Amino acid sequence: GAVVSQHPSWVICKSGTSVKIECRSLDFQATTMFWYRQFPKQSLMLMATSNEGSKATYEQGVEKDKFLINHASLTLSTLTVTSAHPEDSSFYICSALGGAVGRTDEQFFGPGTRLTVL
Amino acid sequence: AQKITQTQPGMFVQEKEAVTLDCTYDTSDPSYGLFWYKQPSSGEMIFLIYQGSYDQQNATEGRYSLNFQKARKSANLVISASQLGDSAMYFCAMRAPTSGNNRKLIWGLGTSLAVNP
Predict the structure, then answer these.
(1) How buried is A69 (Cβ within 10 angstroms: 0-12 exposed, 13-18 middle, 19+ buried)?
(2) Closest Cα of chain B to A21: distance in Å?
(3) Which candidate in B36, B41, B101 is best for mutational testing of the A interface (most A CBs within 10 A)?
(4) Which of B92, B93, B97 is nearest to B30 (CA)?
(5) Residue B49 Cα, gap to closest chain A Cα (Å)
(6) Other CB atoms within 10 Å distance of the CB of residue A56
(7) What is the pLDDT of residues A17-50, one digit of tens each?
């Protein structure tokens, strides 16, 4: 149990286009999901916390208009990188909170999406 | 301020030997949780072990154990009988105080572990 999927697993796009990444909790309901960004050989950087039915909470320095987050259901959150530029190229990982008895604070991670902007 | 410190950027261990990955934390909250995750080159984050601040005993999960020293604010991960498949990045993380609905994690910089045959 507690499986989180991400789609796509990798994407290459042209500069100026928008890219949508989906994060789904497959066998549990997740009221809270997190979006991270990770550069090569670095730690995870939290971008935003996504709560179902409400606006996402963005971390300081993360552009809300550039990284649009929608958490429309208890099993789906989406991250849209708008007008992507080469500096947005990164590994994006989502996680979903809860899902297992006694582990309501455990984050279950998706496999990640590698975005390359040309 | 809350912080996780992993002082070992890289570690080497011989196959079948034990290795300890260091993690120290800083928080003023009496209630917190500590996590260890493994990230192989594929990128997926794999949960390894969890220790709650009020847990009386050190957490163990198979070959993984957490050496929890509360007074020293350390939560070192011990991997016994290392295997080649243990080669990966290892991250220590701490659950932030329970304020509102958020349960975000504070992350360390990670330790790259290489297991030599």
Answers:
(1) buried
(2) 16
(3) B101
(4) B97
(5) 10
(6) 21
(7) 999 999 999 988 888 899 999 998 899 999 999 8
